[in-house]
């Protein structure tokens, strides 16, 4: 499924199977989850995407062929392909072990073709061996929703035992379970009136679920914002205690409205997380291999990618949409 121009529906194209270049893998896609970042790419909300582009960066598949110089992968091995597709390795961020901030990154489904396809090539050094109990459909959302949720939870801080999550979609339902496994108290904030999302959050064990226009009964230690809505930033700042932290976990957000300084005062912090590192992936996938996670999915055939994107855009999903070739 190919994006030719921002704002246009994806088009189904038939292409020859790609050949892996040196250092690459050719992977047969078994499932690819649909991320809100894919929606931002398709809707033209992220600048400088390579066009035409095949979106998709939550990919689970099997290795079909290996390119020259690849030593650590075998034919048939299960593989995950995430958003971070390549880094330069020599900028100051890469040298400081902050490859998520690389000056010259290549992102899967944005700077190189991704997983809304039957086959995909990927840089072998950035592919992830998968030893997970989930099948391909239920493993795919872990490759971004899980990974960015994990990084956001780490950014919230180990001291944050009462956490609010704003926007209860694919990433939120996974990070909520991780937080509760760590004995944290989770409060879920949804669109006002979204009773289905609130019931879904409660079914996972959160202590409270309500609209984002509501205040928690007690101040939060930290809040994580997944919804791309800038107005949630002052709302979350109001909800956290003195010294609390608000983590913006999305790649795109509408403009943040002006708010009084008193919401930030008393050493409250507002931070963002960007992308992920391979270290994040190893840590989270190790966690997911040991801790049973309920991964809520809705599957679509590959040719129905536009339907999946529209369902995500319209808020009709609980959990994650997953394309199956």
What's this entry about, in short?
With 325 residues, the chain is of the alpha/beta class. The chain is built from nine helices and 15 strands. The mean pLDDT is 96.
Explain how this protein is built:
The chain has helices at 36-42, 92-95, 136-139, 145-156, 170-181, 195-204, 232-239, 278-290, 305-313, and strands at 24-34, 58-66, 78-81, 84-86, 106-107, 119-123, 128-129, 162-166, 185-190, 208-211, 220-225, 240-248, 269-272, 297-301, 320-324. The N and C termini lie close together (10 Å). The protein is globular and about 55 Å long. It has two domains: 24-143 and 276-324, Quinone Oxidoreductase, Chain A, domain 1, CATH 3.90.180.10; 146-272, Rossmann fold (3-Layer(aba) Sandwich), CATH 3.40.50.720. It is built from nine helices and 15 strands. Helix content is 24%, strand content 25%. The protein has 325 residues and is of the alpha/beta class. Strands 1, 2, 3, 6, 7, 14 and 15 form a seven-stranded mixed β-sheet that branches. A six-stranded parallel β-sheet has the order 10-9-8-11-12-13, sandwiched between helices. The longest helix has 13 residues, at 278-290.
Task: Work out the number of β strands.
Answer: 15
Report the CATH architecture of the largest domain: Alpha-Beta Complex
The percent range for helix content is 10-25%
**Low-confidence spans:** none
Distance between the termini: 10 Å
CATH topology of the largest domain, by name, is Quinone Oxidoreductase, Chain A, domain 1
Average pLDDT rating: 96
Descriptive keywords:
9 helices, seven-stranded mixed beta sheet, Rossmann fold, Quinone Oxidoreductase, Chain A, domain 1, 325 residues, alpha/beta, single chain, 2 domains
């Amino acid at each position: 499924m190919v994006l030719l121009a921002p704002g246009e529906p994806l088009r189904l194209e038939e292409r020859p199977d790609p050949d892996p270049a040196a250092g690459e893998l050719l992977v047969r896609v078994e499932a690819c989850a649909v991320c809100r970042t894919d929606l931002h790419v398709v809707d033209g909300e992220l600048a400088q995407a390579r066009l035409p582009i095949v979106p998709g960066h939550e990919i689970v598949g099997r290795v079909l062929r290996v390119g020259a110089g690849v030593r650590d992968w075998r034919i048939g091995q299960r593989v995950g392909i995430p958003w971070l597709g390549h880094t330069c390795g020599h900028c100051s961020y890469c040298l400081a072990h902050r490859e998520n901030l690389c000056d010259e990154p290549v992102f899967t489904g944005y700077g190189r073709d991704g997983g809304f396809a039957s086959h995909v090539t990927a840089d072998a050094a950035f592919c992830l061996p998968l030893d997970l109990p989930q099948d391909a459909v239920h493993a795919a959302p872990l490759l971004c929703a899980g990974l960015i949720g994990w990084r956001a939870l780490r950014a919230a801080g180990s001291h944050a035992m009462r956490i609010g999550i704003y926007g209860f979609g694919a990433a939120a339902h996974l990070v909520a379970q991780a937080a509760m496994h760590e004995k944290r108290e989770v409060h879920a904030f949804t669109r006002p009136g979204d009773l289905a999302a609130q019931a879904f959050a409660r079914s996972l064990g959160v202590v409270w679920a309500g609209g984002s226009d509501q205040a928690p009964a007690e101040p939060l230690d930290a809040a994580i914002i997944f919804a791309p809505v800038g107005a949630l930033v002052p709302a979350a700042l109001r909800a956290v205690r003195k010294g609390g932290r608000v983590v913006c976990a999305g790649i795109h957000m509408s403009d943040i409205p002006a708010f009084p300084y008193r919401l930030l005062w008393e050493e409250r912090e507002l931070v963002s997380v960007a992308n992920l590192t391979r270290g994040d992936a190893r840590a989270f996938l190790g966690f997911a291999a040991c801790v049973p996670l309920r991964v809520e999915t809705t599957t679509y055939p590959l040719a129905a990618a536009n339907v999946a994107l529209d369902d995500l855009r319209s808020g009709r999903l609980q959990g994650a949409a997953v394309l199956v070739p």
